[in-house]
Amino acid sequence: MTNFWLKFFATGAFISYIPTAILRNKKNSGAGLLGTFEAFVLFLFFMPGDRLYQAMTTLGVILLAVYVSDKVKFKDDKKDNPKIVIDEIAGYFTAMFFLPHDFLVMVLAFVLFRVFDTTKLAFIKKAENFGQNLPEKTKNKFYVNGAAVVLDDVLAGVISNLIIWCLIYLKLI
Length: 173
Hints:
- The chain is mainly α.
- About 65% of the residues lie in helices and about 0% in strands.
- The chain has helices spanning about 5-10, 15-20, 30-45, 50-70, 85-95, 105-120, 120-125, 135-140, 145-170.
- Helix 5 (about 85-95) crosses helix 6.
């Protein structure tokens, strides 16, 4: 896959370039928020209701996110470049995994995912350093750098998903 296509997928069809073009030299560019909104729209219009297809789609997006996040190259060469938003898409899809396709649930998953993704609970923060002590050859062979980029978002999605399931079970939503 060429770097153009890697950037296309990594940036959510280049959507993450919008806030970085507007807010130059800002630490928090808003690209993650925009990437999560893109995931919301993709889920709303394209995620199948069938659980098998939803599982295959979510797993496929996570695997694609790991591969793309590991292989994409930007000029500044940061490991977890803020332009990479495919991890937000994977995380939001995880947050919505097997949940009802209900607008309120989708909005709640969006809010909870953004909270956990930005605040980074201790074990989620540790996931960002996943496999960093491994030899470089091993990291390259098993896409460890890409997994480290995606893992914290998937964990934020899992926490969000579990909270929503608890709320559903308690009949609060």
